[in-house]
Amino acid sequence: MTAPIALIDCNNYYVSCERAFDASLVGVPVIVLSNNDGCAIARSQEAKALGIKMGDPIHHLRDKVRAHGIRVLSSNYTLYGDMQRRVLAACEAFARDVEIYSIDETFLDLTGFEDRDLVAHARAMRDQVLRWTTIPTCVGIAGTKTLAKLANAAAKKDSRFDGVADFRDDAVRHDVMRAFPVGDIWGVGGATARKLIALGITTAGELRDMPMKQAKGLGTVVLERLVAELRGVPSAAVEMVAPQRRGMAVTRSFGTPVLTFDRLMGALTEYAMRAGEKLRSHGLVASRLTAFFHTNSNKPERPQYTGSRTVTLHPMTSDSLELIAAARKAAERAWREGYVYTKAGVLLDDLVAADMRPRTLFEGDTEKRARLMGALDEINGKFGKWTAVTASQGFKREWKLRSEMRSPAWTTRIDEVPTVRA
Asked: Within 10 A of 53 (CB to CB), how many other CB atoms are there?
């Protein structure tokens, strides 16, 4: 018998994080916007009831916002990331190991807890998360990740489970899978779903009963493994070590259009700096950097252009200053005057662990530069992002994303910590 796996999922996560520090948002429709305040990426239950869908552009919602008093917020990823840390801390005592699947979903290895009432165990975990963070959650329990994901969906949508669904119960599992749409199963994409439906396979139960050989022929080994997981055969245990990243990207839309190379380079400098920070935090170095920028394809009446060039990093590096130099070299090759640019980014490829990188014959003083980067990271970590920057980035940052409705950094900036007066 396989060890049980649980998936805990935070409900309406971004909205729940905002409500944790602003009681005026409780009980009213709330939406959180994407980067640059573009479209809805999180909605409260009240907002969903008004028909607001994921990805709806905010300029299409103006009338509905005014008519229903919908509260609109810019995304505050610093807050959401810190709240994730608090959710994980609340869950740690309830599992042997945890695997972060996304910012609001975590798999839990329940090995060693099998002799307990796991439904009661999950409810106690939900209560602790709620007490520590005020964030509501749902939990799915099963023998495989796919079934745990499916159980979590059932726990969220079906009131009879009251937030916790245990798919180790054969009757419960078969009842839910009999009606669960095949297109909503974790790992079944749109194209695969259409193929399955064409064969008359419309539910999770029917996919579970699909012959393994046929599943492999239709959707390769990926679908075969998914069918196995639906039958309770795990394709992999909870990952103790995260797989090494092969690529990394820092991309943003501009808050205001960019028309000059100097302003574009200011943005690319910031992105290269951030990319270097991310590399160093993961102990990685990159061997290639690609800088790109493009116009707004949604405005075909304007001249269109996409610029992109790749530079080899020799030696491989995570040094932000070297990444900035490479980004400038790539941007100079790709730059075209006379266009209105709305987005740019830096992509890093062929990442390897820093201690495994190949050495070159004429390397400079890498230890000295590593200390410089460490000091830069420490300053910006202690005093706030972009406290210390390069001259090419500047301090005005005219290109920065619009975030006119962002909530304070309630948990990460001392001057924005909420105060209570009695």
From this structure: 11
